[in-house]
What does this fold into?
Amino acid sequence: MEKILAVYNSRFSNLHEIKISPLSRAYTFSDSVYEVIPFYNFELIAFDKHISRLRNSCNALNLVLDFKKTTKEILQLISESNLKNGYVYYQVSRGVDAIRSHIFNDNLSIETFGYVVEHVFKSQKLKVMLCEDLRWKRCDIKSTSLLGNVMSMNNAKKKACDEVIMHKENILTEGGASNLFFTDDKTVFTPSISTNILPGITRELLINEIKDAGIQVIEDEFNIDDLKNAESIWLTSSTKGVAQVSDVFDLEVSLIDDHPLYLRCNKIFNEKFLGGC
It folds into this structure.
């Protein structure tokens, strides 16, 4: 079995040797938050932004985390892994109950867990499926409560799709594990940030870079009909980068493969953060 470097409550070991209590509130209630932090060529990508989002998620759940220790652990995971390209998964739970209870004890000790794995950053073309957004109403918190995402993405898998694009009563939100962008011939559109959408780091980085390059970006509320008229659709995340959508299952679209605006934006992002790969 492959050895994966991990850390649990500040103790480093092989991932598969870590034992977590079944009474962890991460396990019984998804009472936990997480981050996925990419690094390329040994360099962390937007590390401060990921830590800031983790801080916001912890604050939303009133989790008091030692961020100096967390930062040290993340850096140690990367340095000791000797991996050139990859990502760190880092999770923060409220702690371990004496017995399962919706009402938690205020004296619980914060539980932390993380690991580092290799990841190849490469251009992708994804087939996606539209689906109703089944998630709870605080998607701006990066919570481990992901059952709606899991159900939707596995339903999509049965249709030979790689991802989903979710909507709430016809209003577009985001992907199952990504943010949504689409274009006409010269403008980039993306749903505006709300409690229905995670404030994606890659989303933010891409918007800032392409705006600086003079490309118009409109953040607003959009519906499925807007998607039907798109010339190009992309999904962004820390592990996908800027991934092109090749087809939308059960929706009539006329997407242009390798659309010039997509190629330009993808090049801008890759040259800035991924060494032009």
